[in-house]
Specification:
Elements (H helix, E strand, L loop, with lengths): L1 H19 L26 H12 L2 E6 L2 E6 L2 H9 L10 H6 L12 H40 L5 H4 L1 H7 L2
Antiparallel strand pairs: 1-2
Length: 172
């Protein structure tokens, strides 16, 4: 009987030590505690001050563990740009809750991931840029028409006033 209790106690101790250990090649960061990880260090208010202290202590890439999920905070211009360009960081976070809400599939725009996300992103960017260019083209055509009608009418006016529509459009 004592052997079973001692074995269970050792098993729990091993699980606790293993859950607090940082994985190989994981960035430095606050200490992991059992069950909560390093969640206790994330402030509810004025998080930017704490992140600034972490940057001084750990660098621009900081490793955290929130519950049983490993999380990496990236700050600094060069680090953020290289992370955004890295194909390994292009996927979205997937949890059991999100998967259960979408019937274990990638549904819609907000829950898409992988190839479906890439396709939706390309589609959206393509049609949004076409929409913007068509509006810009219409505005330029209208501006040129107004400009030439002003010239043909023989009315003398300042060019600044004649090109006012363009400045409104370019500030959009």
């Amino acid at each position: 009987m004592y052997f079973g209790i001692i074995a269970l106690f050792l098993f729990i101790i091993i699980l606790i030590v293993k859950s607090c250990k940082r994985p190989k090649n994981f960035p430095p960061g606050p200490l992991f505690l059992p069950i909560v990880g390093s969640w206790y260090t994330i402030p509810a208010r004025k998080a930017e001050d704490e992140i600034h202290r972490w940057r001084k202590k750990y660098g621009n890439i900081i490793g955290h563990k929130i519950g049983n999920q490993y999380v990496v905070f990236v700050s600094g211009f060069e680090e953020v740009i290289s992370a955004l360009k890295n194909k390994n960081f292009q996927n979205r976070f997937q949890s059991k809750l999100l998967r259960s809400r979408t019937f274990n599939r990638n549904l819609g725009f907000f829950f898409a991931d992988g190839e479906q996300w890439d396709e939706l992103r390309r589609f959206t960017l393509h049609y949004m840029s076409q929409f913007f260019h068509s509006r810009l083209e219409e505005a330029i055509h209208k501006e040129i028409t107004n400009f030439f009608s002003t010239i043909q009418s023989g009315v003398i006016s300042e060019v600044k006033m004649t090109l006012s529509i363009y400045t409104e459009i370019s500030s959009m």
